[in-house]
Amino acid sequence: MIRLVSDDLRPPGDPPKRHLLSVGDLTREDVERLLGTARTFETSLERHVKKLPTLKGHLIVNLFYESSTRTSSSFELAAKRLSADTLNVKSVGSSVDKGESLKDTALTLGAYDPDVIVIRHPQIGAPQLVARVTEAHVVNAGDGKHQHPTQALLDLYTLREELGRLEGLQVAIVGDVLHSRVARSLVQALALVGVRVTLVGPPALLPREFPAEATADIEAIRDADVVYILRMQNERMEPGANFVPSLREYTARWGITPERLRPGQKVMHPGPMNRGVEIDPLVADSPDSLITRQVRSGLVVRMAVLYDVLTGGPVGVQALAAAEVA
Ligand code: CP
Predict the structure, then answer these.
(1) Which class for 190: exposed (0-12), middle (13-18), buried (19 or more C-beta within 10 A)?
(2) pLDDT tens-digit profile of 85-103?
């Protein structure tokens, strides 16, 4: 289940809290429940009035120490669609600029008694620290190159909605796996639901510890149902480190072009994309691209995650949705 945080995060005697810190904390049952709740919320968004009263009176803090478009906007909108109050804090322009530590920032925001703190931070383990020092439920919106669990969940949701199943699918993840929290979370999530994964890219960007087949041969994408493309994550590379001879060579050897894809082969990308580098614009804009679908999935999956950490499961979602219609 979504992690009931244990003694390693909270003082002895404190009641456990539900957080979403890592895909590793999820069971298959958790994943099924979350995807099912997201499906219910997606149905509710087809209505003229899209707001549900579900989390009225709750406060969601979105605390972002790194740039974001998709994750930050979808968490904010997810909270608003569920009638929660939102407080959005970006490190740039905050007292972090004056040297305030993560702990003191968390304690400061924790003084407003938020129900959930959603955090993105460049340091691995930052969400765990926030879970330790506040009373809030914590959702990891990306910590360094470690985890991005809601991205993995929205990708599973997208796959299932678009391909009709998860078990037995084959996904090729292409690009900078080494620096990718998306890949780390997604490989774990795909394994949990029975999807076979092949990692493809420059050898220096394919970490050995990943529990998946790995190859530098771009031809390996041929057998995949879905090609999942990653960008080069320069912001997490050591200054001066060279993982590929040049971006031009990267594009020539591993860039995804229409010629490299089979007709009907689906394409995913977590964004932001670098068109013309890891993905040809014709691929990004093709009918087989699920990239915009991923963004839409992000909203309903994050609604499901906020609902789940606060209520413990799917009970009542349908009833609440129906109540809104009546
Ligand atoms: N996929 C993703 O995390 O995108 P953002 O950085 O825009 O949030």
Answers:
(1) buried
(2) 999 999 999 999 999 999 9
